[in-house]
Amino acid sequence: QPIRPAEDAQKAYEEFVKDTNSSVEAKSKEIVNKSEVKAKKETDFIEAKEAKEAVMLELEQLSNYNAELHQSCDFIIKNFDIRQTARDEEVDALRQAKAILSGGDFQEFLQA
In this predicted structure, what is the pLDDT of residue 1? Predict the structure, then answer.
């Protein structure tokens, strides 16, 4: 009868070792899987960070371009009346020159 408890203990020990090995193997596979997922997420993060930096650079460039355009437009708007007056005067001078060259009375233009 003393052999029976020893056999039961041996079977229990073997079952425990088998369960432990299975558990260790499952946990090892889980670690490998989680490590692969982590590596993929880190790669995705780095790619997203690089994409963000590229977008931020493009936004900065667009902002600078917008400021340049705004400055140019402000200059044009600010000087529009001056430029319009200068063009009108130039057109009038050309009309007078054309009239003179076409035989118009030069005295009329001197009095104007």
Answer: 59
